[in-house]
Amino acid sequence: MVASGGSSGQPGVFVYGWEAWAILWASIVGFRQREWAADPTPAGVPRVAAVGAASNPTHLSAAIGRTFSVPHESRHLFPVNQRLELIVDGLNALEPTILMGSSSFLALLAVTSLRFGLEPRQPLADQPVECLAHGPGQQPW
Q1: Burial profile 85-115: b = 16 or more Cβ within 10 angstroms, e = fewer
Q2: 124/140 Cα distance (integer angstroms)
Q3: From the CB of residue 65, how many other CB atoms can be counted at a distance below 10 Å?
Q4: Which of 29, 46, 113, 132 has its CA 20 to 30 A from that of 103?
Q5: Please, which residues have CB within 8 angstroms of residue 49's CB and are 6 or more apart in sequence?
Q6: Range with the lowest mean pLDDT among 9-18, 43-52, 130-139?
Q7: Model confidence at 135: pLDDT above 70
Q8: DSSP one-letter string for 43-81
Q9: Which of 17-21, 106-110, 123-127, 129-133 is most confident?
Q10: How far is CA 56 from the centre of its chain?
């Protein structure tokens, strides 16, 4: 049983059986694993995931990461209730290759990244990344 604050507009409590819980996890990480495997650019680059999530495992974002892991990927939790400047300092120190979080958290991080000095490493993609802070076709930082 996990709770959600309702980033989709509907807060609630959800009950999962083990099979459904595993399917949920696979739906979260499956696309990322396929993308990484299909692109030769990051071959040999260590996978380091920064996850913006709740710190309490009663919330889905914290509980699922405590249940499953991804081989060959280190995962680092950044509680979304921390001050943004602490999260940015941690991200800059970690230099993750993967940034995960709820849409509301990632949007807030993008919009405030300039103020707090988020300095990501070189993007792996050759194409510009769309970002709320700068608009379509612009680099995020």
Answers
A1: eebbeebeeeebbbbbbbeebeebbbeebee
A2: 13
A3: 20
A4: 46
A5: 70, 73, 74, 75, 76, 96, 97, 98, 99, 100
A6: 130-139
A7: no
A8: TTPPEEEEEEE-SSTTBHHHHHHHH---TTEEEEEEETT
A9: 17-21
A10: 16
Using one digit for the tens of pLDDT, what is the confidence trace for 80-90?
A: 889 988 998 89
Q: How many CB atoms lie within 10 A of CB 23?
A: 13
Of the pLDDT bands very low, low, confident and very high (cuts 50, 70, 90), residue 17 is very high
Q: How many CB atoms lie within 10 A of CB 15?
A: 8
Structure tokens that stand for 6 in this block: 């309702």
Q: Coil, strand or helix: which one is 138?
A: coil
Q: What is the three-class DSSP state of 18?
A: helix
For the purposes of burial, counting CB atoms within 10 Å of the CB of 52, is it exposed (0-12), middle (13-18) or buried (19 or more)? buried
End-to-end CA distance of the chain: 38
- Which residue's entry shows tokens 């699922």? 64
Q: C-alpha angle with apex 98: 97 to 99, nearest 5 degrees?
A: 125
Classify 12 as helix, strand or coil: strand
Q: Is 34 helix (H, G, I), strand (E, B) or coil?
A: helix
